[in-house]
UniProtKB/TrEMBL annotation:
ATP binds at G24, R87, C88, G117, D118, G119, S120. Mg(2+) binds at D118. Residues 404-772 are annotated as: C-terminal regulatory PFK domain 2. It is found in: Cytoplasm. It comes from Mytilinidion resinicola. This is ATP-dependent 6-phosphofructokinase. It catalyses: beta-D-fructose 6-phosphate + ATP = beta-D-fructose 1,6-bisphosphate + ADP + H(+). The active site is at D165.
Length: 772
């Protein structure tokens, strides 16, 4: 990002940008502060933090503090907010805001980036609206002179949403919500194990007063039996409905019961539904040994997950850009995320829409409350309902529209594969289709005479797969082309009428082979969808593969541990080798999430000048380090970044050049990167995309084989592209979007993020003309 030419408000002085965290704390807020501070400095501005939220603004003085580059070192891996947050009563009143305006002018700050919830953002916009009046009043009262306020005619406000509830409209995710969801899922997974052992029922209360995002997503990720959310209360006879569903699950052989209740859960008459009401029902009506667990503040704490670190970093950088591009006429923006795209939305409208949800709930207009949440929310709600209940007569298709759907895993295991399969199975059963597992990939199918290679999956088989890592039906890298003849014969023999593939680049290749082989084999003229699942995130047709988020979380955990291990000895740099094949995605995003000093990717390669610059940079960084950055430094190198400069060689070069002033260590996390339990993001997206994939397949029911083969959408990849989730025809993706040699997409969206990674780590760039 080139520095933007904006004149500073004070002649001869740099522009000053303030940043604060306000309202409830959320994991990731520190990442936002770090990004704002460093990006401001990189843009030739001065960065200030306001301590303790609006309280610091009202009090002024030392509560408004300039921050240097080094002051935010290590912020990414710290939980909570290091600059403090508070609820400030005096800012709610005009005199408080008058004091705040005076302090800002005195400090020379005319732009404020606020990371907080809807309350904090409302306050910020009010402050901006009143600003000219506040400044005039300060002059009138003689507290400031006309000359002093002259350069501060306008106040720039940019909002960043930091909230664990994910309650702001117009954004899919708020900073902190996925970390909080991670904590909830971890707890539910633990509880799940004990519930299973004792055949118990647990009622778990999670945060969310007007917003059921955490409760719903926890339900989707853990396969909970019932979920209560404020936006969509259950039917009037919910007691009967819940008991019926849970009894059914128990009758089918389920040993445990999990019910998730959002803090703000209500019935359709706005009466509160409490965990103890649910417990009494389960105990008295169903005779279950039931316990209540209230997760409480555990949900707020801890370090941020990889996604929140990335989100807060990218949004912090975008906020600075928004400040620099703002004019007095621009409405205050809030930085949002739609699927995979960072966008700016009018702050006031986002806040207004958020308040409307609460109003709609208050007016019992629940359809409206649901419609005011983003489209993603409604889809998750639908996916949850379909995948949780085994008996849904309303969804069942007529007999002649039911099909046999083959489900196959291809390639290495990735987090979320089982969740996707569970969703597909549940969807099939709800609709009356027959889900058939093809065990151990294409080689499994080709060895069809093995007993059990192809098996129908029951609801109970798949029921516990929501949170399981690995591949329950077995996965294999083998391709159909090894034996097309037998593969085709098996498709016909087992009457596979549609195929749902979950896997990475091999799965993608498999669909391509099957599609091309349709010419010779009629049994391949069936609808096929691939759901990309690989830690490498290198499948063309999507910007996100399930499993990649789990991998990033493992990787940052590994990096955090390495870095911390150096805190006693100091002056240590770790060269960590990541997976990813020929795609530098994992290395780059992990680099962004931990603040790596440098990231080496296959796309860019490694050359001697680059190493030279990076070693110089290391030397300078260690020389500057006066003890504030007690932990080690990290360089990430993708496994295929260079044939010559291996991880060990780079470490040796650094050792040689360091001349004893610092040391280098190598770390190879290897298969650790595949993670254990899949991350909630991988689980929920797997579920949502699994259901969507089956819905896509259903469009071809009743069509002839030739009609299917003639339709490019009959072999498709489901994925996220920018702000959309969509199906792309295989024919187009394989011919136009795929770099077959390097097994990755031709255009990798994250390449645009490289400059932000480098800017925020202060990495020196190649002089113009030298290339990377
Ligand atoms: P959150 O930002 O998490 O929604 P709050 O609603 O508690 O949290 O708001 C945090 C702080 O923002 C409040 O303590 C107050 O200082 C300020 N604030 C909230 N709403 C307003 C408002 N309408 N006008 C002025 N300031 C507000």
């Amino acid at each position: 990002m080139a520095p933007t030419e904006i004149p500073p408000p004070l002649p001869g002085k740099k522009r000053r940008i303030g940043v604060m965290t306000s309202g409830g704390d959320a994991p990731g807020m520190n990442g936002a502060v770090r990004a704002v501070v460093r990006m401001s400095i990189a843009q030739n501005c001065e960065a200030y933090v306001i301590l303790e939220g609006y309280e610091g603004l009202v009090q002024g003085g030392d509560m408004i503090k300039e921050m240097g580059w080094e002051d935010v070192r290590g912020f990414l891996s710290e939980g909570g907010t290091l600059i403090g947050t508070a609820r400030c009563k005096s800012f709610m009143e005009r005199p408080g805001r008058l004091a705040a305006a005076k302090n800002m002018v005195l400090k020379g700050i005319d732009a404020l980036i606020i990371c907080g919830g809807d309350g904090s953002l409302t306050g910020a916009d009010k402050f901006r609206g009143e600003w000219p009046g506040l400044v005039a009043e300060l002059v009138e009262k003689g507290e400031l002179t006309a000359e002093q306020v002259e350069p501060f005619k306008h106040l720039n406000i940019v909002g960043l949403v930091g909230s664990i509830d994910n309650d702001l409209s117009m954004t899919d995710a708020t900073i902190g919500c996925y970390s909080s969801l991670g904590r909830i899922c971890e707890s539910v997974d633990y509880i799940d194990a004990t519930a299973f052992s004792h055949q118990r029922a647990f009622v778990i209360e999670v945060m969310g007063r007007h917003c059921g995002w955490l409760a719903l997503m926890a339900g989707v990720s853990t396969g909970a039996d019932f979920v209560f959310i404020p936006e969509n209360p259950p039917s009037d006879d919910w007691e009967k409905e819940m008991c019926h569903i849970i009894k059914q699950h128990r009758d089918m052989g389920k040993r445990k019961t999990i019910v998730i209740v959002a803090e703000g859960a209500i019935d359709r008459n706005l009466n509160k539904i409490t965990p103890s009401m649910v417990k009494d029902l389960l105990t008295n009506q169903l005779g279950l040994d039931t316990r209540i667990t209230t997760l409480g503040h555990v949900q707020r704490g801890g370090t941020a997950c990889a996604y929140d670190r990335m989100l807060s970093t990218l949004q912090g950088a975008e906020a600075v850009k928004a400040v620099l591009e703002a004019t007095p006429e621009t409405p205050s923006p809030v930085i949002c995320m739609i699927e995979n795209k960072i966008v700016r939305r009018p702050l006031l409208e986002a806040v207004k829409q958020t308040h409307e949800v609460a109003e709609a709930i208050g007016a019992k207009d629940f359809d409206r409350a649901m419609s005011l949440r983003d489209a993603e929310f409604a889809e998750y709600y639908q996916a949850y309902n379909i995948t949780t209940s085994s008996d849904q007569p309303k969804l069942r298709l007529p007999e002649n529209q039911r099909i046999r759907v083959g489900i196959i895993h291809v390639g290495a295991p990735a987090g979320g594969m089982n969740a996707a399969t569970r969703a597909a199975v549940a969807y099939c059963l709800a609709r009356g289709h027959t889900p058939v597992a093809i065990h151990n990939g294409f080689p499994g199918l080709q060895r069809h005479h093995d007993e059990g290679a192809i098996k129908e999956i029951s609801w109970l088989d798949a029921e516990s797969w929501a949170s399981k890592g690995g591949s329950e039906i077995g996965t294999n890298r083998g391709l159909p082309s090894t034996d097309l003849e037998t593969t085709a014969m098996c498709f016909a023999k087992y009457n596979i009428q549609a195929l749902f593939l979950v896997g990475g680049f091999e799965a993608f290749t498999a669909v391509s082979e099957l599609r091309k082989a349709r010419e010779h084999y009629n049994s391949f003229k069936i609808p096929m969808v691939i759901l990309p699942a690989t830690v490498s995130n290198n499948v063309p047709g999507t910007e996100y593969s399930i499993g990649s988020d789990t991998c990033l979380n493992s990787l940052i955990q590994y990096c955090d541990a390495c870095r911390q291990s150096a805190s006693a000895s100091r002056r240590r740099v770790f060269i960590i080798e990541t997976q990813g094949g020929a795609s530098g995605y994992i290395a780059s995003i992990a680099g962004l999430s931990i603040g790596a000093l440098a990231v080496y990717t296959p796309e860019e390669g490694i050359n001697i000048k680059m190493l030279d610059r990076d070693i110089d940079h290391l030397r300078e960084t260690f020389a500057r380090d006066k003890g504030q950055g007690r932990a080690g430094k990290i360089i990430l190198r993708n496994e295929k970044a260079s044939k010559t400069y291996t991880t060990e060689i780079i470490a040796n070069m650094i050792r040689e050049e360091a001349k004893g002033r610092f040391e280098a260590r190598v770390g190879v996390p290897g298969h650790f990167q595949q993670g254990t339990t899949p991350s909630p993001m991988d689980r929920v997206r797997a579920t949502r995309f699994g259901v969507k994939s089956l819905q896509h397949i259903e469009q071809f029911i009743g069509k002839s084989k030739d009609e299917i083969a003639a339709d490019p959408m009959s072999a498709a990849v489901i994925g996220i592209k920018g702000a959309k989730v969509l199906f792309s025809p295989m024919e187009q993706v394989e011919s136009k979007e795929t770099d077959w040699k390097d097994r990755r997409p031709k255009d990798e969206f994250w390449m645009d993020l490289k400059s932000i990674i480098n800017t925020l780590s202060g990495r020196p760039q190649a002089p113009k003309g030298e290339g990377a």
